[in-house]
Amino acid sequence: MSMKNALSGIKVRHCKNTAGLPVEVLPTPDFVVLPMSQHMGPPCDVKVAPGDAVKVGQVVGDSASYMTAPIHASVSGTVARIEDFVNSAGVIDKAVVIESDKKQELDPNLAPPVINGYSDFLAAVRASGLVGLGGAGFPTHVKLKPRNLDQVDTLIVNCAECEPYITSDHHLALSDTDLLLRGIQLVKKFLELKQVIVGVESNKPDVIKQLKEDFSYDDSITVFTLRDIYPQGAEKVITYETTGRVIREGMLPADAGVVVMNITSLTFLAKYIETGIPLVTKTITVDGGAVQTPKVVTAPLGTPYKDIFAFCGGFKSEPAKIIMGGPMMGITVYDLNSPLLKNNNAVLAFDASQLVSEEPTACIRCGRCVRACPFHLMPAAIERAVTAQNVDQLRELKVNLCMECGCCSYVCPAKRHLVTANKMGKKLLKEKGGKK
Q1: Cα separation of 354 and 322, whole Å?
Q2: In sequence order, what are the beta bridge partners of 323?
Q3: Which of 275, 289, 323, 388 has its CA 20 to 30 A from that of 146?
Q4: Cα separations in angstroms, 361 against 2, 365, 388, 414, 418
Q5: If you ran DSSP here, which 8-state letter would residue 311 be given?
Q6: How far apart are CA 262 and CA 283, in angstroms?
């Protein structure tokens, strides 16, 4: 199946330098740092104390709140301390620091979950610690329990990986197709879905070929070739382009009859159901002009970035900027002691030659930002409304539809900070916009 519905977007240089490399396993680090907020929702409560001995997979953080997912020890060893941790949003959180004994002994209480029905399946998903592994960290057990389950009929498997540099999903699609299929079958079975659409960008012909061959016997699974356009991996975009269904402002994918899951989430889920080992490692892309040897690396969660870069040979030049995630939507890393998190799929270190810093000039009303936006929002108008603190206008301009993909800033000839203004607009509307 190929494209019938098409939204706007932009062409970016993909720079998939690590696409053909094998995945390498990082040696167990000396310490891991496990923040209690690695998901959308309230942070977990710390469940261990300094001096406690812990095993791999043991719960070190959990909460009674519905919108949370437990945090598990990713190494065996001793809890060194509980410390304050400032997350990417500038919020102070608690983190469990574990000194590794390098033995990687599994928690003896781990066992494959017993699943006799839908409620058992949801409980297992929550116990696994799974959240959205490439985005905002939405707890997966919440995603799989929509309020209108009887109206949801489609699983969309996101294998777009449209950000430059990132290749970890590409590797997974080729190496763990059997796990992907089992993960798809689990979700399809327990949510009683009718069809599955696997969305893959056209610049990954090897993935498209292999998945079509491996899934050919099941008529309910369709491998869908997406255009090589950023941001195909966004939830609203991939839903529209594969099904023609629109996720409107304030809607969740389930409101359009779909569940969207990343390929990594599905393969992990299948592995957890079979082994009982929760989410304790992550495979990420390590790349950028300052990195000595770019690699695709599997590392324990909580591993400091300095250890990950050291495993890749360190830096061949002084990094001018380090980003957690892709260059379009990633978050700047200011401290190499920052840890690898659940929803991180890359860490990139750029040298000075890769960065262009230009002062913004006056908007020339060219309209490029509107044409590039997948939803045809008006970023320049939103920027003016933010400056004027006009919440009514922000509401009319549908600022909450912005997914912060960065297309507007990327194409702006005046180099205006449009995506930043959109973020500020959403924050302003939340704080002052009332319930209209």
Answers
A1: 12
A2: 332, 348
A3: 275
A4: 41, 12, 19, 5, 12
A5: H
A6: 13
Q: Is 256 helix (H, G, I), strand (E, B) or coil?
A: helix
Reference 387, options 368, 360, 406; nearest CA is 360
Task: With beta carbons less than 8 A apart as the criterion, state whether 198 and 157 touch.
Answer: yes
Which amino acid is residue 163, in one-letter code? E
Task: Name the pTM for this structure.
Answer: 0.93
**Phi, psi of 102, deg, nearest 5:** 65, 10
Distance, in Å, from the CA atom of 48 to the CA atom of 36, rounded to the nearest integer, reads: 12
Closest to 324 measured CA to CA, from 280, 276, 284, 295: 284
Q: Nearest-5° angle of CA 338, CA 339, CA 345?
A: 115
Can you give the pLDDT of all 436 residues of the chain as single tens digits? 444 567 888 888 888 999 989 999 999 999 999 999 888 888 999 999 999 999 999 999 999 989 899 999 999 999 999 998 887 767 788 999 999 999 999 999 999 999 999 999 999 999 999 998 867 788 999 999 999 999 999 999 999 988 999 999 999 999 999 999 999 999 999 999 999 999 999 999 999 999 999 998 889 999 999 999 999 989 999 999 999 999 988 888 999 999 999 999 999 999 999 999 999 999 999 999 999 999 999 999 999 999 999 999 999 999 999 999 999 988 888 889 999 999 899 999 999 888 877 889 999 999 999 999 999 999 999 999 999 999 999 999 999 999 999 999 999 999 999 999 999 999 999 888 655 5
10 Å CB burial of residue 105 (0-12, 13-18, 19+) is middle
**Cβ contact 378:402 at 8 Å:** no
- C-alpha closest to that of 183 among 270, 260, 277: 270
Query: What is the length of the chain?
Result: 436
